[in-house]
Write a structure and sequence with these properties.
serine-type endopeptidase activity, about 30% strand, Alpha-Beta Plaits, alpha+beta, nine-stranded antiparallel β-sheet, about 350 residues, Peptidase_S26, Pept_S26A_signal_pept_1_CS, hydrolase, 5 helices, four-stranded antiparallel β-sheet, Pept_S26A_signal_pept_1_Lys-AS, Umud Fragment, subunit A
Length: about 350
């Protein structure tokens, strides 16, 4: 019959349908691939120049930031850095021994005193951007004069501003044959550690909790715990601002280095500036008694090439910070902690719903 299709025509139509189906599938896959590529590039640009996620791994900022908090860090606040290394995006894998020329782009402002800042851990042995991320409070900005007396921080001669999240260790004495309840202390907002002396406890807490516990009938005395000046709590190989060992409850008067500052190097103060001159600003230094040679030139004068910051954790007696390893160079600043977008309580295996989407206030 004339209207009947021949076998060849039917075959050609089936072949055409298969081609059309394959074409539609390829078009669908191409659309998805384009969308995924666009999302990947957009996420990479956002992470590099605008915002980055960060997780709090340690209690050094409690109670301001809790272990298990997930932060959004604003790189725009202080200016994003162009890429420094070549590596696999969204991982810590990078090409060793190869560092890109980089610059810091203009930001919304400078690091201000008491900002909560994410930065690269200065004394890591890696390219700057590949170093571990730390988060602390910038208690000292370039040019500030700091000192710590009996575990109290002073900035430019005045006692440093206090914040509700700042915790310190207090010694609490109770009446004879009375035991202090750890659950009661925890409910008040502190963490109890039993002291070796009977009737005396050490509690990590903020000033407000200390005042509350001071009113308890079983408590006879509450005072700030202070290490004796000169107490060698840590080994002598660690960084020190004073006499070769760390005592984080005492710090002699120290000026936070700033760009353009000229310092006179002596055997007594070289430990303060050694990392700055050699590690962060790339100079070769030799010493012969009280004489210094910098890049082959004999001189005891050095001019600082960039700004530096003094960082401290809000959990003051449970934080390794600038009191232990020195200043943070401006090149190592990543961004400002902006918002807690999620928080996980590992003890209860539950989210901390009251912390979700909380903006971080200095």
């Amino acid at each position: 019959m004339a209207n009947q299709l021949s076998k060849e025509e039917r075959r050609q139509r089936r072949e055409q349908r298969r081609k059309d189906q394959n074409k539609q599938a390829k078009s669908w896959l191409r659309e998805w691939a384009d969308a995924l590529l666009f999302a990947f590039v957009a996420a990479l640009i956002i992470r590099t120049f605008f915002f980055e996620a960060y997780r709090i791994p340690t209690p050094s900022m409690e109670k301001t930031l809790m272990t298990g908090d997930f932060l959004i860090v604003s790189k725009m606040s202080y200016g994003p850095r162009t890429p420094m290394v070549i590596g696999i995006p969204f991982t810590n894998i990078y090409m060793p021994g190869f560092v890109l020329p980089w610059v810091r782009l203009p930001g919304l402002g400078e690091v201000e005193r008491n900002d909560i800042v994410v930065f690269n851990y200065p004394i890591d042995l890696a390219p700057v951007a590949a170093k571990t991320n730390y988060v602390k409070r910038s208690v000292g900005v370039p040019g500030d004069t700091l000192r710590i007396d009996d575990n109290q921080l002073f900035v430019n001669g005045d006692r440093a501003q206090s914040f509700p999240g700042i915790q310190k260790t207090y010694e609490v004495q109770v009446r004879n044959r009375v035991r202090l309840s750890a659950a009661k202390v925890k409910a008040a907002g502190g963490t109890l550690y039993r002291s070796q002396q009977p009737g005396r406890y050490r509690i990590n807490m903020n000033d407000q909790v200390a005042e509350t516990i001071r009113q308890w009938p079983e408590v006879t005395n509450v005072e700030l715990f202070v290490l004796p000046d000169g107490f060698n709590e840590y080994d002598r190989r660690r960084f020190s601002f004073s006499s070769g060992f760390v005592n984080h409850h005492h710090l002699p008067t120290t000026v936070v280095p700033f760009k353009g500052q000229t310092v006179t190097l002596t055997p007594e103060n070289y430990h303060v500036y050694e990392n700055i001159i050699t590690r962060y600003e790339g100079n070769n230094v030799g010493r012969n008694g009280d004489q210094f040679t910098i890049n082959g030139e004999q001189t005891n004068q050095y001019t600082i090439q960039q700004d530096y910051y003094f960082m401290m954790g809000d959990n003051r007696d449970n934080s390794e910070d600038s009191r232990f390893w020195g200043f943070v160079p401006q090149t190592h600043v990543v961004g400002k902690a902006g918002m807690i977008y999620f928080s996980w309580d590992a003890e209860r295996w539950l989210p901390r719903f009251d912390r979700l989407l909380n903006f971080i206030h200095d």
